[in-house]
From TrEMBL:
Site for Transition state stabilizer, residues: N150
GO molecular function: DNA binding; double-stranded DNA 3'-5' DNA exonuclease activity; endonuclease activity; metal ion binding
Keywords in alphabetical order: Hydrolase, Magnesium, Manganese, Metal-binding
InterPro entries from the UniProt entry: AP_endonuc_1, AP_endonuclease_F1_BS, Endo/exonu/phosph_ase_sf, Endo/exonuclease/phosphatase, ExoIII-like
Site residues (Important for catalytic activity), renumbered to this chain: D222
Cofactor: Mg(2+); Mn(2+)
Pfam family, one: Exo_endo_phos
Record's protein name: Exodeoxyribonuclease III
Entry's cofactor comment: Probably binds two magnesium or manganese ions per subunit.
One biological process term in Gene Ontology: DNA repair
SUPFAM superfamilies the UniProt entry points to: DNase I-like
Residues reported in the UniProt entry to bind Mg(2+): N8, E35, D148, N150, D251, H252
Length: 261
């Protein structure tokens, strides 16, 4: 079996302690990180290697963005796509020993205004999805796509559907755009495959909340998708919600999926 975890860590160096805690407690075979906020040359590899994660692929950037895949199993065929066409480090992909490809992505948040004319960042987000959709339509091997998608698509993926309809991450145009990406390869959303709607499911809670757990104003921004040919090998999927209360937490929590490959 192979377990794959994904986590927007919001600075891997600032939160290296809780990354180590996750690896010791959950021991995934592979960890995909987003928003690492570190250049490739200064990625903190020592801790990972000490715990047996010898294979490390990064696509980094100083103080911003950044993604990484750390693994106990060999990684080959490393790819780094620029889906925003602006040089930002938001994707890294590899092939696993099983022949499955694994793509780790940090999709732009998109700013605060859901209008590409008034907010160029929102337009860049939609265009990012457009390029990903073209890529997904041409896939020719079993693939796991994971990361921070920065869209909560379902009503039960947010704490209040009506209140967030005009809030970036849950607007109708973002949900529609994400749907086009999902349709391009008939992706299976493992979060909702294993934890069916309308059960509430969140992976992000704002730092602004005085007591995030009591208010529970969450959104499901982080996802793990697979091409349909991998569905028989997907054994379980869960969130690690206690991580939101660990020391100096990320505002996101990890996802962990077990596969039979």
């Amino acid at each position: 079996m192979t377990s794959i975890a994904s986590w927007n860590i919001n600075s891997v160096r600032a939160r290296i302690g809780i990354v180590e805690k996750l690896l010791r407690e959950e021991a995934p075979d592979i960890l995909c990180l987003q928003e690492t906020k570190v250049e490739c040359g200064t990625f903190p590899k020592e801790m990972f290697r000490a715990l047996g994660y010898e294979h490390i692929e990064t696509h980094g950037q100083r103080m911003h963005h950044g993604v990484a895949i750390v693994s106990k199993v060999p990684l080959t065929d490393v790819r780094k796509y620029d889906w925003q066409a602006n040089g930002e480090a938001r994707h890294v992909g590899v092939t696993l020993p099983s022949g499955v490809r694994l793509d780790n992505v940090y999709i732009p948040a998109g700013g605060d205004i859901a209008d590409r004319d008034l907010n160029p960042k929102f337009g860049q987000k939609l265009d990012f999805f457009g390029r990903m959709t073209e890529w997904a339509g041409a896939l020719d091997q079993p693939t796991v796509l994971t990361g921070d998608f920065n869209v909560a698509p379902l009503e039960s993926d947010v704490w209040n559907h009506k209140a967030l309809l005009d809030v970036v991450s849950h607007t109708p145009i973002e949900v529609e755009t994400l749907g086009k990406l999902q349709a391009a390869s008939n992706w299976v959303d493992l979060g909702r495959h294993f934890i069916a709607a309308p059960t509430p499911l969140y992976t992000w809670w704002s730092y602004r909340a005085k007591d995030w757990e009591a208010s529970n104003r969450g959104r499901r921004l982080d996802h793990m998708w697979i091409t349909p040919d991998l569905l028989p090998q997907a054994l379980s999927h869960r969130i690690v919600q206690p991580a939101r209360s660990w020391e100096r937490p990320s505002d996101h929590i990890p996802l962990v999926t077990e596969f039979a490959f």
